[in-house]
Amino acid sequence: MTTKVTGLVMGILFIPLLWQFFRDDDSRCSVRQLVAHNAVGFLFVFVAVWQTHFALASTVNPALPGQGYYQASDEYKRILSAGENGSIRHFGVMLRDSMDFVGHYQTGVPKLDLCKSGESGSPWFLWPIGARAINYRWETEGGDESALYRYLYLQSNPAGWFLGLLGVFLAAGLLLVSLLVPLRQGLENRFMLVVFLGLWVAYMAAISRLDRVTYL
User: Fold this and answer.
1) Alpha-carbon span 178 to 197, nearest angstrom
2) pLDDT score of 129 more than 80
């Protein structure tokens, strides 16, 4: 989550973790330890990564949107002007503006239009076969606008996608068979299989709501 909003899907893991802990006799103590340890670890990493970013990001380039401030609030601008962006006491303001910009950026993403020339998006179900490459970087020789452009594209790997899907189908098949047919030897890790298969389904259900190319 510190790097990409899609990482929020990992929060689902707390549901099976808590369920597993409540099955133990010592559940209350275990849950307290689970929450305390995870909260401390999360806050340390989350705050450290963002604060390092804020401390380093002190240069304002007027050529960028909003004269280099993007959607920063007046309060954040004053912090940058005073050179106080490295101070932890301003962490709340800087984090708030950064989170607000995520929503602002998303609203500016154009809707998918397959009839438009040069459209780089594609329906989610076409990602595995690389229906659209991602135009990731581009440049001109010597910075001359009249020169030919050079592009660097990111292209999906169908072999990786289909091997992954094969694993998903096998996992789902094993679970289905274990429920319908009395096996001589039951699945040793049924709980883990359910958890990770559920995590995959939840992630794909959420990410399929996007209608642009994405880094998968």
Assistant:
1) 15
2) no
